[in-house]
User: Fold Putative ABC transport system ATP-binding protein from Dielma fastidiosa.
Amino acid sequence: MLDLKDISITFNAHTVNERKALSHLNLHLDDGDFVTVIGSNGAGKSTLLNVIAGTYEPDEGSIFIDGQDMTFTKEHKRANVIGHLFQDPMKGTAPNMTIEENLGLAYCRASGHGPLSLGIRKKEREFFYETLKALNLGLEDRMKTEVGLLSGGQRQALTLLMATIVTPKLLLLDEHTAALDPKTSEKVMTITNDIIAEHHITTLMITHNISNALEYGNKTLVMNDGQIAFILEGEERKNMTVEKLISLYSSKTENEFSDRMILE
Ligand SMILES: Nc1ncnc2c1ncn2[C@@H]1O[C@H](COP(=O)(O)OP(=O)(O)OP(=O)(O)O)[C@@H](O)[C@H]1O
Ligand SMILES: [Mg+2]
Assistant:
């Protein structure tokens, strides 16, 4: 489904701030893989997702989605096959527009339907209503509410819905629950898991929560210093505990997870 071949990227090359963020990275994802991604600060996790999304072009290597070479496809052209969520709930929605307008925009963008200026049709409104209802947050009765008035968790759930309203080939989640309080974060995680399972969306999810990384998905990708240190799957992953993973990481990488990851 996704193939990364020998990807390297260096920021600020030939300056004192030169930083090799990804180094000869190879990765293959199967259709429907839900991969959690962990690693210390600066390991290259966000850069990996940004390169896949087309935010940055790699210096070397190629990116294939469903066998198609996307290496030089512009970010906005990848947006109809890739959903990308970030930590900040303020990103990804238009605050002065209503819930249904935001959904309408996302729907038009991803499906190539006519522009929103034609208005939201009855059929679409009903579809949005049902999709919102499935979130169980009561948002279906607030479709005319401006998104800026929603809580962070509600906004993140809506952003997720917008990213998946037309099923993307690939979903990229960059610590998308990290800015939420623990209870809301858990709720958004459950919604995330349900949406991914229902539509079998191939997903890469960065998290700093090690137990979430082991609980959700079918593989865990562990990054260090711009490379994949190791991947957990199958029996090894099933039997993995947070404690064992912390010590495995330091023994394999001579590096430590951040305090934030270990304390949570
Ligand atoms: N746009 C950029 N310009 C310059 N350097 C960058 C840029 N983006 C990332 N870097 C550098 O690349 C390295 C990898 O950063 P990245 O954000 O991918 O790490 P991360 O694993 O997501 O870390 P964190 O857990 O802190 O989010 C870091 O040294 C970072 O400073
Ligand atoms: Mg990051």
The mean pLDDT is 92. Strands lie at 2-11, 19-29, 34-39, 60-65, 68-69, 82-85, 170-174, 202-206, 219-224, 227-233. DSSP finds ten helices and ten strands in the chain.
